[in-house]
Amino acid sequence: MKDLDYMAWIESFMTWFNSLVFELSRMLASAGVPEEYQTLGALGLLYLGVVLVVIIVIFGLLAVLRKPKEKKVVAPKEAVEEVEAKPEPEPLSLSARFKRSLAKTQSSLVGRIDSLLRGRPNIDEDLIEELEEILITADLGMQTTKRLIGTLEAGQAKGTLETPDQVRQLLMEELEKILQTESKPLDVSIAAPFVIMVVGVNGVGKTTTVGKLANQLASDGKKVILGAGDTFRAAAAEQLEIWGERAGVEVIRHAEGADPGAVAFDAARAAVARKADVLILDTAGRLHTKVNLMEELKKIRRVIDREIPGAPHESMLVLDATTGQNALTQAKLFNEAVQLDGIALTKLDGTAKGGIVVAIAAELDVPVRFVGIGEGIDDLRPFDPAMFISALFES
Ligand SMILES: Nc1nc2c(ncn2[C@@H]2O[C@H](COP(=O)(O)OP(=O)(O)OP(=O)(O)O)[C@@H](O)[C@H]2O)c(=O)[nH]1
Ligand SMILES: [Mg+2]
């Protein structure tokens, strides 16, 4: 059946072809072509026609196919050129990085103060009340807020506070005063080995802070030893070892579940034997409300003190800025258990609750030594009140 179909198709094609040749021959005849060349001429014309159609089809296909190809090839090239043409971003200065990490605190405190003061020519009671609310909700704490509001009201009564700019200036000065009184940088040169015991609740950033601090001290040319006093959490010692490697310092560790006092003992001995400048002891995270865990810290202190009289020279509490007012409660209870010498306030980056640093400075008699502004090894800064205030207030 199929063969028959083919035959019929070929037959009809030949009939059509012959009639086409016949028509072309007639055209050539009317154009005056001699009879013996008419069939040949018609076949020639057909041949040329077919070649022309094939060429047009090929060019058409190429045009369609090349368009997307061109995009694929050219676009990355252009992109590369664009990247090459872009100048390398300038590395941010210390203060610029600090400022960037405080962006959320800036807008929750100074940003709100500025928008309140904008378009309010008169400094009246309503305005001061609204300011009070901003200060409280920005985690400055009741005590600091009362002090600031008291100063504003006194200025208003004296007639020295008349413009929004004066309000802003007064707040800035008062905040800096509060922060300056509790700003004492850590001096590790007063003893050798200088022992820092790092304490705090779970996940606040103790181990990270130990790592960053070790790196800073080692970069300053100090011989640093780390003690992995967190024997409670699985992989805590490994985490500290990774930091030790990054900072290029030795880590003294025991197996998981070992007595943290024994780690403290070995670390203290190693620090003395190796003539280290600084020993930093990491400890397990513990809830400030758990009495037995606080007792454990006291025991670790005693062990260190027996090996290195007077040590630890710095009991440093790590607080997570994102916890806001809860950080104050933690600080009070840790201070009762192991007398604190300093505070490291971590995670200032990405929180709007950075105002807590003011509450800490105002309400605790413990200086803020460092602030953490990121997870990187360089993201720990000695706390500098002037830089903090200018990061918040300077536009
Ligand atoms: N953004 C930011 N993250 C931080 C900062 N400091 C620490 N972290 C992160 O906080 C998390 C917890 O840090 P750790 O150092 O393990 O905290 P820890 O207090 O040792 O935790 P435990 O030992 O489990 O109690 C990690 O993901 C850190 O990268 C900081 O200043 N900024
Ligand atoms: Mg830890």
Overview of the molecule:
The protein has 395 residues and is an alpha/beta fold. It is 60% helix and 10% strand. The chain has helices at 2-30, 35-85, 94-101, 103-117, 125-137, 142-158, 164-181, 206-219, 236-247, 260-273, 291-307, 326-337, 356-363, 385-393; strands at residues 194-199, 224-229, 250-252, 278-283, 314-320, 342-346, 368-372, 380-382. An eight-stranded mixed β-sheet has the order 3-2-4-1-5-6-7-8, sandwiched between helices. Strand 7 (368-372) and strand 8 form a beta hairpin. The longest helix is centred in the first third of the chain and has 51 residues, at 35-85. The protein is elongated. The protein starts with a helix and ends with a helix. The structure holds guanosine-5'-triphosphate (GTP) and magnesium ion (MG).
Write the element-wise H/E pattern from the N-terminal end onward.
HHHHHHHEHEHEHEHEHEHEEH
Provide the low-confidence segments as ranges: 68-76
Spatial arrangement of strands, main beta sheet: 3-2-4-1-5-6-7-8
- Secondary structure category: alpha/beta
Largest sheet: 8 strands, mixed
Task: Give the overall form.
Answer: elongated
Span between termini: 90 Å
Number of helices: 14
Q: Which hetero compounds are present in the coordinates?
A: guanosine-5'-triphosphate, magnesium ion
Radius of gyration: 40 Å
Tell me the β content. 5-15%
Give the strand tally: 8
Average pLDDT over all residues: 88
Q: What helical percentage do the residues reach?
A: 55-70%
